[in-house]
Amino acid sequence: MKKEKVLAMLLAGGQGTRLKTLTKDLAKPAVPFGGKYRIIDFPLSNAANSGISDIGILTQYKPFQLNEHIGIGSHWDFDRNTGGLRILSPYTNEIGGRWYKGTANAIFENMSFIDHVDPDYVLVLSGDHIYKMDYKKMLEYHIEKKAHATISVIEVPWDEASRFGIMAADKLGRITEFAEKPEVPKSNLASMGIYIFNWKVLREYLLEDIKKEDSSNDFGKDIIPAMLGDGLGMYAYTFEGYWKDVGTIKSYWEANMDLLSDDNQLNLYDRSWRIYTKNKNLPPQYVSEGSIIKNSLVNEGCVIEGHLEKSILFSEVAVKKNACVYNSVVLSNAVIEEGAKVCNAVIMEGVTVKSGQEIGEKDSNNVYLVSADDIIKE
To answer: Looking at residue 253, what is its pLDDT?
Structure first.
């Protein structure tokens, strides 16, 4: 019996403008997360853990750090003689070329690559969400339903539903209606931006969509409504677990803080579903006599001489004597000088918080993004 072939296409070209200076010099999927990872590590690790052996990474906005991080995919076991990981950038040819206009256009522009792999199914992933998911189970559901397309959905609070693409489905899971960011949502099943398509079917719709001058060449706005309008078998796969769209400074900070909560659902210590990343060769962290560390994640190379509570430190961070860091995310090579106090903040890489400086308040709902040039309050 022929084994179905799956190709994952990971959209990793997002600019992430709402993350402000965090994405000034790198793509959103390359933004650091959780003390030692980058956001893209989560879909890459999900694919590796799900047994997917072919994956294309579609880059676009400021890809240097992202490409350097991914390399040949060896950290996720994608460095293979046959198949494996390929980085796909926008390109020009004799009939022109451009940056990807939309999510569907990104797949269309790489149609020759997909045809070369010749998959039965194409799994489309977003490179900017935090979650752990077994794509194999979603594929099994897709095949069981004899679907043309399957969209992974998650229940969101009703008051947030208008921020997402919303699906309405019948008792069998068949999608009956789709609305992109509706003002009055009829359902709270939000699209996670994870799709499985039968490649031959998707290929035809991409070819038709590119002919439409008024199309935005987007899955949510164009391809999915077209398939639904034609009565194709489209199903919702309901995901139950942790999923976070870290699209703003506050949601990015919240997702990091979630790792420290008592009911943390992401569980980075689960050996059955590891999150892989590119590791640096650094010495262990040093904790001096008299320092205090409570409920925190501290990466390699850090030197802690002050007070650290409910915070996440990336590599080679220094917290000097009598300095206090609370409820904060501190990126690599930052220095919190003696007597400084940091609360509810994201400290960017290489930033020095000066001696005696105070940023944020413990009882405030505000979150502060601290760069070398500015402090932004969210």
So the answer is: 98
Between the alpha carbon of residue 50 and those of residues 43, 44, 132, the distances in Å are 10, 10, 10
Q: Dump pLDDT digits (tens) for 68-105.
A: 999 999 999 999 887 899 999 876 554 445 678 899 99
By the 8 A CB rule, do 49 and 146 touch?
A: no
pLDDT in tens, 13-66: 888 888 999 999 999 999 999 999 999 999 999 999 999 999 999 998 888 999
Helix, strand or coil, per DSSP, at residue 237 = strand
Instruction: Note if the pTM is more than 0.85.
Output: yes
pLDDT, the chain, mean = 94
CA distances to 201, 286, 302 from 282, rounded to whole Å, are 49, 12, 9
pLDDT > 60? residue 207: yes
Q: How many whole angstroms separate alpha carbon 195 and alpha carbon 10?
A: 11
- Report which secondary-structure segment, H or E, holds 352: strand 352-353
Q: What is the rounded distance in angstroms from the CA atom of residue 250 to the CA atom of residue 227? A: 35
Instruction: Give the pairing type, strands 32-33 and 324-326.
Output: unpaired
Residue 171 in this model has a pLDDT that exceeds 70: yes
The phi, psi pair for 78, rounded to 5°, reads -105, 5
**Backbone angles phi and psi of 68, in degrees to 5:** -65, -40
Share of the chain above pLDDT 70, in %: 97
Q: What is the DSSP string of 335-351?
A: EE-TT-EEESEEEPTT-
> Where are any strands of DSSP class E within 59-118?
84-88, 92-93, 96-97
CA quadruple 133, 136, 141, 142: dihedral sign: positive
Beta-carbon count within 10 A of 231 CB = 8
